[in-house]
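name: query_chain
kind: protein
chains: 1
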Amino acid sequence: EGAWRTPLGDVRVDDRLAGEILSRGAADNLVQANVAAHESEHSIEVQLPLIQHLFPEARIVPILVPGDGRAVALGRLVGEVIRDRRADAVCLGSSDLTHYGPMYGFTPKGMGEAALRWVRDENDRRMLDLIAGLKAEEVVPEAKDHLNACGSGAIAAALAAGRVLGATKGVIVRYTTSFDVMQERMGRADYDAAVGYPGAVF
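structure:
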């Protein structure tokens, strides 16, 4: 309930939709009201200015989804509540992909161009293929095994909700890495880290 504040103003929480998700998810311990859960996670805050800009009247139901076995069930629940209420709603799942480099403590392929190619063409590609295939059940195990998504719960939940709401496939709209952006925009070729960033719709 209440609102989230950004420099663009307040974004109201859809307390009726949130209340129904809470009441239906409480029995299975899928969801609980916990303001403190959002204190150290910034992914929703990154999305809010975009939502405010594109849909100024939109209300939100902010849910932090852990990367565990409950993510898919929670996504299904959210999709069912939206479907049953015939709510005019969109589900967003926010996650970076592979965090590669010494600063992240993850360099299984060493450093250099070959390592970054591995990030793009193999490690992140596996996750992108799961997203495109709406394979929600495989997302969390994939991320645990290959460290290729920090918000695997959000991805899995969004895919599961999408399937409930009728989605049959995902489309990767754009994919890049922070290394590619640094190289393209700043001409830096000495950057020794990369984070994968996808955009997908379904």
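note: The two ends are 28 Å apart (CA to CA).
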